[in-house]
User: What shape does this take?
Amino acid sequence: MSTNEKVYTRKPGTDKYTILTPVATAYPHFVTPQAYKAKGGKGGSGEPSFSGEWLFKPDSAELQQIKAIMAKIVEEKWPGRTAREMAERKAAKAAGLPVPGNHLRYPLKSGDTKDKPFYKGFTVLTARAYPDNAPRLSQFVTGTPINIEDENKKLLEKKLFYHGVETVAQFYFKTYEGEGKGEDKARDGVSAKINMVCSTGRGAKLPGADGPNPAEVFKGSVGHVSTEDPTVGQYDDDGEDVPY
Assistant: This one.
Protein backbone atom coordinates (compact mmCIF):
# COMPACT_ATOMS: atom_id res chain seq x y z
CA MET A 1 0.00 0.00 0.00
CA SER A 2 1.37 3.43 -0.93
CA THR A 3 2.12 5.90 1.83
CA ASN A 4 -0.58 8.30 0.59
CA GLU A 5 -3.36 5.70 0.29
CA LYS A 6 -6.07 6.01 2.91
CA VAL A 7 -6.91 3.07 5.12
CA TYR A 8 -10.59 2.20 4.86
CA THR A 9 -12.43 1.81 8.14
CA ARG A 10 -16.08 0.85 7.86
CA LYS A 11 -18.56 2.83 9.92
CA PRO A 12 -22.10 1.66 10.74
CA GLY A 13 -24.48 2.67 7.97
CA THR A 14 -21.71 2.55 5.35
CA ASP A 15 -19.82 -0.09 3.37
CA LYS A 16 -17.91 -0.59 0.13
CA TYR A 17 -18.06 -3.17 -2.63
CA THR A 18 -15.87 -3.97 -5.63
CA ILE A 19 -17.39 -5.60 -8.73
CA LEU A 20 -14.84 -7.84 -10.44
CA THR A 21 -16.96 -9.11 -13.33
CA PRO A 22 -17.14 -6.49 -16.13
CA VAL A 23 -20.49 -4.73 -16.44
CA ALA A 24 -21.83 -2.58 -19.30
CA THR A 25 -21.63 1.06 -18.22
CA ALA A 26 -23.98 3.74 -19.55
CA TYR A 27 -23.30 7.48 -19.69
CA PRO A 28 -19.87 7.26 -18.04
CA HIS A 29 -18.63 10.68 -16.95
CA PHE A 30 -15.47 9.70 -15.11
CA VAL A 31 -13.04 12.27 -16.54
CA THR A 32 -15.06 15.49 -16.69
CA PRO A 33 -17.81 16.15 -14.11
CA GLN A 34 -21.22 16.97 -15.55
CA ALA A 35 -24.07 19.02 -14.12
CA TYR A 36 -27.18 16.90 -13.59
CA LYS A 37 -29.89 17.57 -16.17
CA ALA A 38 -33.40 17.39 -14.78
CA LYS A 39 -35.87 15.30 -16.77
CA GLY A 40 -37.27 17.45 -19.56
CA GLY A 41 -34.75 20.20 -18.79
CA LYS A 42 -32.56 21.85 -21.40
CA GLY A 43 -29.45 22.37 -19.35
CA GLY A 44 -27.47 21.15 -16.41
CA SER A 45 -28.39 22.11 -12.87
CA GLY A 46 -26.86 21.49 -9.49
CA GLU A 47 -23.25 20.81 -8.61
CA PRO A 48 -21.31 19.00 -11.38
CA SER A 49 -20.37 15.44 -10.53
CA PHE A 50 -18.68 12.38 -11.98
CA SER A 51 -21.27 9.70 -12.66
CA GLY A 52 -22.11 6.44 -14.39
CA GLU A 53 -24.80 3.78 -14.62
CA TRP A 54 -23.98 0.06 -14.40
CA LEU A 55 -26.34 -2.48 -16.02
CA PHE A 56 -26.64 -5.76 -14.11
CA LYS A 57 -28.17 -9.08 -15.13
CA PRO A 58 -31.10 -10.34 -13.02
CA ASP A 59 -29.10 -13.34 -11.80
CA SER A 60 -25.88 -11.41 -11.14
CA ALA A 61 -24.24 -12.63 -7.94
CA GLU A 62 -22.62 -9.23 -7.50
CA LEU A 63 -25.98 -7.48 -7.76
CA GLN A 64 -27.21 -9.73 -4.94
CA GLN A 65 -24.14 -8.78 -2.90
CA ILE A 66 -24.87 -5.09 -3.44
CA LYS A 67 -28.47 -5.60 -2.31
CA ALA A 68 -27.27 -7.46 0.77
CA ILE A 69 -24.87 -4.63 1.66
CA MET A 70 -27.65 -2.08 1.34
CA ALA A 71 -29.98 -4.15 3.50
CA LYS A 72 -27.24 -4.46 6.13
CA ILE A 73 -26.37 -0.77 6.35
CA VAL A 74 -30.07 0.22 6.39
CA GLU A 75 -30.65 -2.12 9.32
CA GLU A 76 -27.68 -0.59 11.12
CA LYS A 77 -29.00 2.94 10.55
CA TRP A 78 -32.72 2.27 11.03
CA PRO A 79 -33.29 -1.06 12.84
CA GLY A 80 -36.53 -2.71 11.76
CA ARG A 81 -37.30 -0.21 9.02
CA THR A 82 -36.88 -2.64 6.13
CA ALA A 83 -39.36 -5.12 7.61
CA ARG A 84 -41.83 -2.32 8.40
CA GLU A 85 -41.67 -0.89 4.88
CA MET A 86 -42.07 -4.34 3.34
CA ALA A 87 -45.26 -4.85 5.38
CA GLU A 88 -46.55 -1.40 4.39
CA ARG A 89 -45.91 -2.08 0.72
CA LYS A 90 -47.67 -5.41 0.91
CA ALA A 91 -50.69 -3.86 2.63
CA ALA A 92 -50.84 -1.00 0.12
CA LYS A 93 -50.69 -3.41 -2.82
CA ALA A 94 -53.44 -5.60 -1.32
CA ALA A 95 -55.63 -2.53 -0.87
CA GLY A 96 -54.95 -1.24 -4.37
CA LEU A 97 -53.20 1.83 -2.99
CA PRO A 98 -49.95 3.47 -4.18
CA VAL A 99 -46.69 2.71 -2.43
CA PRO A 100 -46.12 5.09 0.53
CA GLY A 101 -44.12 8.10 -0.61
CA ASN A 102 -41.83 8.21 2.41
CA HIS A 103 -40.09 4.88 1.85
CA LEU A 104 -36.33 4.67 1.45
CA ARG A 105 -34.65 5.57 -1.84
CA TYR A 106 -32.00 3.31 -3.32
CA PRO A 107 -29.52 3.92 -6.15
CA LEU A 108 -30.91 0.83 -7.96
CA LYS A 109 -33.68 1.11 -10.54
CA SER A 110 -35.50 -1.19 -12.89
CA GLY A 111 -34.29 -0.45 -16.40
CA ASP A 112 -37.83 -1.22 -17.58
CA THR A 113 -38.95 2.12 -16.10
CA LYS A 114 -36.35 4.14 -17.99
CA ASP A 115 -36.99 5.78 -21.36
CA LYS A 116 -34.06 4.21 -23.27
CA PRO A 117 -34.54 0.77 -24.90
CA PHE A 118 -31.07 -0.45 -23.96
CA TYR A 119 -31.99 -0.36 -20.26
CA LYS A 120 -34.83 -2.88 -20.69
CA GLY A 121 -34.37 -6.10 -18.75
CA PHE A 122 -31.56 -4.74 -16.58
CA THR A 123 -31.14 -3.43 -13.05
CA VAL A 124 -29.35 -0.09 -13.15
CA LEU A 125 -27.00 1.10 -10.41
CA THR A 126 -26.38 4.86 -10.50
CA ALA A 127 -23.29 6.15 -8.70
CA ARG A 128 -21.66 9.58 -8.45
CA ALA A 129 -18.60 11.32 -7.10
CA TYR A 130 -17.96 15.03 -6.61
CA PRO A 131 -14.96 16.92 -8.03
CA ASP A 132 -13.04 16.92 -4.76
CA ASN A 133 -13.16 13.08 -4.80
CA ALA A 134 -12.67 12.19 -8.45
CA PRO A 135 -12.77 8.44 -9.15
CA ARG A 136 -9.39 6.78 -9.67
CA LEU A 137 -9.18 5.31 -13.16
CA SER A 138 -7.36 2.35 -14.67
CA GLN A 139 -7.44 0.10 -17.74
CA PHE A 140 -6.71 -3.52 -18.57
CA VAL A 141 -3.55 -3.93 -20.65
CA THR A 142 -3.01 -7.54 -21.79
CA GLY A 143 -5.15 -8.69 -18.88
CA THR A 144 -3.39 -6.59 -16.23
CA PRO A 145 -4.99 -3.49 -14.64
CA ILE A 146 -2.81 -0.39 -15.11
CA ASN A 147 -3.48 2.96 -13.44
CA ILE A 148 -4.23 5.94 -15.69
CA GLU A 149 -2.31 9.09 -14.82
CA ASP A 150 -4.21 12.38 -14.72
CA GLU A 151 -2.43 13.78 -17.78
CA ASN A 152 -3.62 10.80 -19.87
CA LYS A 153 -7.28 10.73 -18.83
CA LYS A 154 -8.50 13.16 -21.50
CA LEU A 155 -6.53 11.39 -24.22
CA LEU A 156 -8.01 8.01 -23.31
CA GLU A 157 -11.56 9.09 -22.40
CA LYS A 158 -13.28 8.30 -25.74
CA LYS A 159 -11.41 5.03 -26.15
CA LEU A 160 -11.82 3.64 -22.64
CA PHE A 161 -14.87 5.33 -21.12
CA TYR A 162 -17.44 5.45 -23.90
CA HIS A 163 -21.19 4.84 -23.54
CA GLY A 164 -21.50 1.04 -23.26
CA VAL A 165 -17.94 0.09 -22.29
CA GLU A 166 -17.62 -2.80 -19.85
CA THR A 167 -15.98 -1.83 -16.59
CA VAL A 168 -15.26 -3.11 -13.12
CA ALA A 169 -15.56 -0.65 -10.27
CA GLN A 170 -15.47 -0.01 -6.55
CA PHE A 171 -18.32 1.81 -4.79
CA TYR A 172 -18.92 3.24 -1.35
CA PHE A 173 -22.50 2.89 -0.08
CA LYS A 174 -23.83 5.24 2.60
CA THR A 175 -27.17 5.81 4.30
CA TYR A 176 -28.40 9.40 4.41
CA GLU A 177 -31.25 11.31 5.99
CA GLY A 178 -33.53 13.45 3.83
CA GLU A 179 -33.48 17.16 4.51
CA GLY A 180 -36.48 19.24 5.46
CA LYS A 181 -39.40 18.75 7.83
CA GLY A 182 -42.97 17.50 7.77
CA GLU A 183 -44.59 16.72 4.44
CA ASP A 184 -41.77 18.49 2.61
CA LYS A 185 -39.12 16.25 4.14
CA ALA A 186 -37.04 14.57 1.47
CA ARG A 187 -36.87 10.78 1.60
CA ASP A 188 -34.11 8.99 3.46
CA GLY A 189 -32.07 6.52 1.49
CA VAL A 190 -28.81 4.96 0.39
CA SER A 191 -26.32 6.63 -1.94
CA ALA A 192 -23.59 5.06 -4.09
CA LYS A 193 -20.27 6.85 -4.58
CA ILE A 194 -17.79 5.89 -7.31
CA ASN A 195 -14.33 5.30 -5.85
CA MET A 196 -12.48 3.51 -8.65
CA VAL A 197 -13.23 2.38 -12.22
CA CYS A 198 -11.22 0.05 -14.46
CA SER A 199 -12.06 -0.12 -18.17
CA THR A 200 -11.83 -3.29 -20.26
CA GLY A 201 -11.88 -1.16 -23.43
CA ARG A 202 -14.51 -3.59 -24.73
CA GLY A 203 -18.26 -3.73 -25.11
CA ALA A 204 -20.73 -2.59 -27.78
CA LYS A 205 -21.47 1.11 -27.85
CA LEU A 206 -24.97 1.86 -26.68
CA PRO A 207 -27.31 4.17 -28.63
CA GLY A 208 -28.39 7.52 -27.30
CA ALA A 209 -25.09 9.23 -26.50
CA ASP A 210 -21.77 10.19 -28.00
CA GLY A 211 -18.87 8.25 -26.68
CA PRO A 212 -19.13 9.92 -23.52
CA ASN A 213 -7.88 2.78 -10.40
CA PRO A 214 -5.82 1.35 -8.65
CA ALA A 215 -4.62 -1.88 -10.25
CA GLU A 216 -4.35 -3.87 -7.05
CA VAL A 217 -8.08 -3.59 -6.36
CA PHE A 218 -8.99 -5.10 -9.72
CA LYS A 219 -6.41 -7.88 -10.00
CA GLY A 220 -9.10 -10.39 -9.01
CA SER A 221 -10.90 -9.54 -12.24
CA VAL A 222 -8.19 -11.05 -14.45
CA GLY A 223 -9.69 -14.01 -16.25
CA HIS A 224 -13.25 -12.74 -15.79
CA VAL A 225 -13.20 -10.24 -18.67
CA SER A 226 -15.79 -11.29 -21.23
CA THR A 227 -18.05 -9.90 -23.94
CA GLU A 228 -21.17 -11.13 -22.17
CA ASP A 229 -23.89 -8.53 -22.12
CA PRO A 230 -24.87 -7.28 -18.64
CA THR A 231 -28.79 -6.99 -16.53
CA VAL A 232 -32.18 -6.92 -13.47
CA GLY A 233 -33.85 -7.85 -10.25
CA GLN A 234 -37.13 -7.53 -8.40
CA TYR A 235 -38.66 -4.11 -8.34
CA ASP A 236 -41.15 -2.11 -6.40
CA ASP A 237 -44.09 -0.28 -7.92
CA ASP A 238 -42.27 2.97 -8.71
CA GLY A 239 -39.33 1.28 -10.36
CA GLU A 240 -36.86 1.27 -7.50
CA ASP A 241 -34.99 -1.95 -6.93
CA VAL A 242 -35.42 -2.81 -3.28
CA PRO A 243 -32.47 -4.70 -1.76
CA TYR A 244 -34.48 -7.08 0.40
